[in-house]
Amino acid sequence: MTLTTRWGEALDPDQVLPEYPRPQLVRDSYLNLNGRWAYAITDDAREPQRYDGEILVPFSPEAPLSGVGRQLLPGQTLWYRRTVRLPDGFHRPGHRVLLHFGAVDQTCAVRLNGVPVGGRTGGYLPVRCDVTDALCEGENVLVVEVRDDSDTSWHARGKQKLRRGGIWYTAQSGIWQTVWAECVPAAHVERLTLTPHLAQGCVEVTVHASAEAGAAEIRILADGAVVAEASAVAGTAVRLPLPAVRPWTPEDPFLYDVTVDYGDDRVRGYVGMRSFGVGPDADGVPRLLLNGEPYFHAGVLDQGYWPDGLYTAPSDAALVADIVAMKRLGFTMLRKHIKIEPLRWYHHCDRLGMLVWQDMVNGGTGYRPLVVTAPVLTPLRLPDRGRWRRWFGRADAAGRAEFRAELRETVEHLRNVVSVAVWVPFNEGWGQFDAAEVAREVAALDPTRIVDHASGWHDQGGGDLRSLHVYFRRFRVPRRRPGRDARALVLSEYGGYTLRVDGHSFGPAEFGYKRYRGADGLAEAFTRLHDEQIVPAIPDGLAATVYTQLSDVEDELNGLLSYDRRVLKLPEEVIRRVNDRLRLPRP
Q1: Peptide bond into 549 cis (omega under 30)
Q2: Strand partners, 140
Q3: Which phi and psi angles does 228 have, rounded to 5°?
Q4: What is the C-alpha to C-alpha distance for residues 261 and 566, in angstroms, rounded to an integer?
């Protein structure tokens, strides 16, 4: 049975994800290249003379919405081809044409008119190609060559597995985020760094330009009115004081607009005034802080998979619907699990008011059950340095170096996202190594956010959080040793209660942590779990929770929503009533 979402059913192949894909660096120049491309899969690296058929980009060939339904295997090559004719007036004299791929899984090489113009290895971060010198008048031929080792190598792969099942999902490949082009002046803004300093009432702005010379004119606006402006040399940070600062919170997600003029280039973005941290409450208990005050993060695990699009949501409205549904249920946080979403997803969290815990994407070679499975039932904690790295699938130095490089890129890629509160480098030992050292590196890269260095188990004593996953045992607050561990206690995965909804499930297999046969039994168990274990733990030090999970994903039937997002398995009032109680005790 093929499941579809209502957005997938309504998909117009001539209008696939047409929205501007980079909300914090917007230009008027925009050419969307999603839609119908030719594709082929070959057993070697020679471009075929004839292509196999048509694929709907940016859906992977494994995704039903692509129209292909084929699995790319290690050693094979996936080819994309299309012609591009730039609209009249799009390419201005003295300007550059940049081609962007939101993400291509896993290794890609891009050619325009037979000329190599770019590529990368790493399936979760953007690809940018300057195609100016390869352009010709009239029709241009764009070819993309893709290879994907999936889980047979140490490259980042997330929850993908060629032999899917249980908590591992269908492997996908190729272009899976929007393809687009823009025309920019030769001297142009490449990125902005926007750092809110709430306590000082100012925003620190750095304009990174293609030529680090000349001045940029920066303006910050509130409700359309300019409230701060400054001139700054590209590459130099400048602080802009704001009058009567309005803080960003999930309850009041106020965003300031930002405009930057650099020579002939103009870009638009936004910033939110908020701060994150860990500190003691009035009783000396470590808590997560939002804008300097203790704030409980009531979260849900969000894997970002779709039955018809796999990694790719069938529409922008589908991304919004997930966030809105969880907010309506009373959640204040989404833990984005082992995936980097398109930038529009983070934009919607920013504007709607939803905190984000961002996982890094795991890699490494095969994971040993002793490391990744045994700790579910036993309080096993292994070191992750030196000779122990091989137990975590991290014996290969090149794989470790690639992970750290992608970690740095991820932090930079998402640095300006207002809603990202926590970085999570490692989860449940999947490809973990040197976690305490990695946590220090992340904190140095971005001291404005919280770090959960090892979510679940194999705690190395690093980061800002003591992070537990509890599924098969009763949750109890561990004894806290004052003066020895100032980290906040978080239950970063729990629950996972399973209910099959006939007609809305992926297949006959069923994975979860406790099985129920009816909605009434599930609602009763969900309420009892929180009444007896979670709510009483909050006064004793529990600072955040992450319920598993937002929706079913393939064999995992433990979502609050069905995989096709058509059924909410529990009455809305039951979930809201529970979440209303997930609050810190009042002083």
Answers
A1: yes
A2: 84
A3: -160, 145
A4: 45
Residue 306, number of CB atoms within 10 A of its CB: 28
Distance of CA 462 to the CA centre of its chain: 23
Work out the percent of the chain whose per-residue pLDDT is above 90.
95
Can you read off the two tokens belonging to residue 344? Answer: 């529009």
Residue type, 565: R
Q: Which residues pair with 490 in a beta bridge?
A: 467, 544
CATH (residue range 276-579): 3.20.20.80
Find the Cα–Cα–Cα–Cα dihedral 161, 164, 169, 172, rounded to 10°: 60
pTM (global) more than 0.70: yes
Three-state SS string across 469-482, please? EECCCCCCCCCCCC
Averaged pLDDT, 349-377: 95
Q: How far apart are CA 64 and CA 71, in angstroms?
A: 11
Q: What residue spans define the domains of the chain?
A: 6-185, 189-271, 276-579
Distance in angstroms (rounded) separating the CA atoms of residues 297 and 276:
12
User: What Å distances lie between residue 291 and 307, 415, 421, 449, 491, CA to CA?
Assistant: 38, 18, 11, 12, 22
Residues 176-201 have pLDDT tens digits of 999 999 999 999 999 999 999 999 99
pLDDT tens for each residue of 270-322: 999 999 999 999 999 999 999 999 999 999 999 999 999 999 999 999 999 99
Query: Above pLDDT 70, what percent of the chain?
Result: 99
What CATH number is given for 6-185 in this structure? 2.60.120.260
Mean pLDDT of the 27-50 span: 96
Q: How far apart are the first and last CA of the chain?
A: 53
Dig out the tokens for 312 from the structure: 């790719």
pLDDT for 480 equals: 78
CATH number of the domain located at residue range(s) 189-271 in this protein:
2.60.40.10
Nearest in space to 204 (alpha carbons), one of 191, 218, 215: 218
Residue 483: pLDDT over 80: no
How many C-beta atoms surround the C-beta of residue 335 within 10 A?
29
14 sits in the region (left: phi over 0; alpha: psi -120 to 50; else beta) called alpha
Task: Mark residue 508 as left, alpha or beta (left: phi above 0; alpha: psi -120 to 50; beta: remaining).
Answer: alpha
Q: State the CB neighbour count (10 A cutoff) for residue 165.
A: 13
CB within 8 Å of 13: residues ≥ 6 apart: 35, 36, 56
**Which residues, listed in sequence order, are joined to residue 455 by a DSSP beta bridge?**
427
Structure tokens at 283: 């009783």
Q: Tell me the pLDDT of the chain averaged across its residues.
A: 96
CA distances from 412 to 409, 442, 566 (A): 5, 11, 35
Are 21 and 177 a contacting pair, CB within 8 Å?
A: yes
Q: What is the distance between the alpha carbons of residues 111 and 121, in angstroms, rounded to a whole number?
A: 15
Residue 411 identity: V
